[in-house]
Specification:
With 448 residues, the protein is an alpha/beta fold. Helices cover 48% and strands 13% of the residues. It has four domains: 3-175 and 182-202, 3-Layer(aba) Sandwich (Rossmann fold); 215-287, Glutamyl-tRNA Synthetase, domain 2; 292-349; 356-447, Orthogonal Bundle (Arc Repressor Mutant, subunit A). Helix 5 crosses helix 6, helix 8 packs across helix 10 (276-287) and helix 20 (425-432) packs across helix 21 (434-447).
Length: 448
C-alpha cells in the first residue's frame, strides 16, 4: 500500500449490542485494528442497534469494556445507528425518488402493513476480496429485497451502507458469513452514489468438531476467557494466528509486533480451528513475561476467591512457592485454583500425616529407610547450605546416587509433603525452610 492510500484508510468496529462480543467478532475487530494501525488509518466505532427489541445498553458497555481491556482503541465514535435515523430516512427518500426503491405490502404479518424494497436489477455483481480474490454473485435469487420496515425503520443492509458512505469507510473487514450480504450492499452503494470499499472476508473460527465455534466448545467471550485466567495480550496474540500467519514459525508477538507484521494478504481463506492447547501455550509464554508484582496480584486474585486460598497467599513462603513451583506448572491463572483444590499445596499449609509404609520406596526395608532419613536430617542440619535449592541438592546428591535415588529421595519427599506426587524434596525443603524441614524429617525418622 502506498503512502497516499495509507492516509485514506478508514475501517469500522461495528458490533451489534444484542449480546456479548463473541470471540469471532473480537477476531474481526482485531484484524481491522491491526490493518488500520499498520497503515496509519482511522477506526470508527459504531453500534449497529437497529434491532431495537434485542439491543441493550449493557451489551454496549461490555463491548467497550472488552475493547479497553484488549487495548483495541478507536479514533471516532462510538456512534449509534438508533441516533442516525434521519440519515437513513434521507437515503430512503433518495432511493424512492430515483425509483430504485418502492413501498410494497408486506406478504406476511398484519394486513395493510408495508415495507420498502430495493428494486433489484437482477445482475451479476463482482467484487475483489483481498483474501479470496474476485467473487461474482448473481443477485437474481435475492429478489427485490427489503431495506426498511417503514419510512423510519431501516434494516441492516441500508443502515450499514449509509453509515459506511457517510463515515468514508474504505475497507470492510468482516467474517465470511457476510459474503452474501456484500452484493446487496454494493447495489445500494451504487444507487446512492457512494464509493465501493475494499472487502476482506475472514475465515470462520471452528471447534475441534469442525463446527462453528460456540458455547458448546467452552468460553466464547472475552470475559469468560479473562475469568479462566487468560491475559489480554495472550488472547490478542492467539486470535491473530487464527487465520493469519507471519510467513515463518514465530508464535509469540506483542501488540506492536503484530501491527508491524500484519497483512491481509497472509490471511487464509479456510476455517481456523480453535485450540485451547495452543492458547494455553501462548498464554503461558506471556504470563511468564509479566513483572513479578503483576503476576502475584493475578494469582492472589484467583486464590482469594476460595476460602483457604487467603491462608496460602498470607503464608510467609508464598512468594517462594510461586517462584519455584507455581510458575512452572500453570498455563493460565485459574490453573492455580485447580492445583489448590487438589491439595497440591497442602504440604506448605499443614504438617503431613504419614504412615510408615508410605515412607518406604518399593522393597526398601524400614531399617534402610530410617538410615537414609537419619542421614538426610544430619546432613541438612549440620553440613548443608540453605541459600539455594541447588546448594541443598548438592549436599545430598552424591549420597543419593550411591545408595539409590529412589531409596533416599522418596522417604525424604514423603516426610516433607505426605504426597507421592509433589515438587522434588530439595525444592520443598527450601520453601519450607530449615527448621520446618528438619522437624518433619525427624518425625518421620521417629515414626519408623
Amino acid at each position: 500500500m502506498n503512502n497516499s492510500m495509507a492516509e485514506t484508510v478508514i475501517t469500522r468496529f461495528p458490533p451489534s449490542p444484542t449480546g456479548s462480543l463473541h470471540i469471532g467478532n473480537i477476531r474481526s475487530l482485531l484484524f481491522n485494528y491491526l490493518f488500520t494501525r499498520k497503515h496509519g488509518g482511522t477506526i470508527v466505532m459504531r453500534f449497529e442497534d437497529t434491532d431495537k427489541e434485542r439491543s441493550n445498553k449493557m451489551h454496549e458497555a461490555i463491548a467497550l469494556e472488552t475493547l479497553t481491556a484488549l487495548g483495541l482503541d478507536f479514533d471516532r465514535g462510538p456512534f449509534r445507528q438508533s441516533e442516525r435515523t434521519e440519515k437513513y430516512v434521507a437515503a430512503l427518500t433518495t432511493l424512492i425518488e430515483k425509483d430504485v426503491a418502492y413501498t410494497a405490502e408486506e406478504s406476511e404479518g398484519e394486513p395493510g402493513k408495508h415495507v420498502i424494497r430495493f428494486r433489484n436489477p437482477n445482475r451479476n455483481v463482482t467484487f475483489h476480496d483481498i483474501i479470496r480474490g474476485d467473487i461474482t454473485i448473481d443477485t437474481t435469487d435475492f429478489g427485490d429485497f427489503v431495506i426498511a420496515r417503514s419510512e423510519t425503520n431501516p434494516i441492516y443492509h441500508l443502515s450499514v451502507v449509509v453509515d459506511d458512505i457517510d463515515m468514508g469507510v474504505t475497507h470492510v473487514i468482516r467474517g465470511e458469513d457476510h459474503i452474501t450480504s456484500t452484493p446487496r450492499q454494493i447495489l445500494l452503494i451504487e444507487a446512492l452514489g457512494g464509493s465501493i470499499p475494499t472487502y476482506a472476508h475472514l475465515p470462520l473460527i471452528i471447534g475441534s468438531d469442525k463446527k462453528k465455534l460456540g458455547k458448546r466448545h467452552g468460553a466464547v467471550t472475552y470475559q469468560e476467557f479473562r475469568d479462566l485466567g487468560y491475559i489480554p495480550i495472550a488472547i490478542i496474540n492467539y486470535l491473530a494466528l487464527l487465520g493469519w500467519n507471519p510467513g515463518d514459525d514465530r508464535e509469540f508477538f506483542t501488540k506492536d509486533e503484530l501491527i508491524q507484521e500484519f497483512s491481509l494478504e497472509r490471511v487464509n481463506n479456510s476455517p481456523a480451528t480453535f485450540s485451547y492447547e495452543k492458547l494455553d501455550s501462548i498464554n503461558r509464554h506471556h504470563i511468564l513475561q509479566m513483572p513479578e508484582n503483576d503476576y502475584l496480584r493475578e494469582l492472589e486474585h484467583f486464590l482469594k476467591e476460595h476460602a483457604e486460598g487467603e491462608t496460602l497467599v498470607a503464608h510467609p513462603r508464598f512468594k517462594d512457592l510461586v517462584h519455584f513451583v507455581i510458575r512452572e506448572r500453570i498455563d493460565k491463572f485459574s490453573d492455580v485454583v485447580t492445583l489448590f483444590a487438589a491439595g497440591e499445596f497442602d504440604w506448605l499449609l499443614h504438617t503431613p500425616k504419614i504412615q510408615v509404609d508410605t515412607l518406604m520406596w518399593k522393597e526398601t526395608t524400614p531399617e534402610t529407610t530410617r538410615k537414609h532419613l537419619q542421614h538426610a536430617h544430619e546432613t541438612l542440619s549440620k553440613n548443608a547450605d540453605w541459600s539455594s535449592i541447588e546448594a541443598l541438592k548438592e549436599s545430598l546428591w552424591e549420597y543419593a546416587e550411591r545408595n539409590g535415588k529412589g531409596e533416599v529421595l522418596w522417604p525424604m519427599r514423603f516426610a516433607l509433603t505426605g504426597r507421592d506426587r509433589s515438587p522434588d524434596p530439595f525444592t520443598v525443603a527450601f520453601i519450607l525452610g530449615k527448621d520446618e524441614s528438619l522437624e518433619r524429617l525427624k518425625k518421620a525418622e521417629e515414626l519408623i
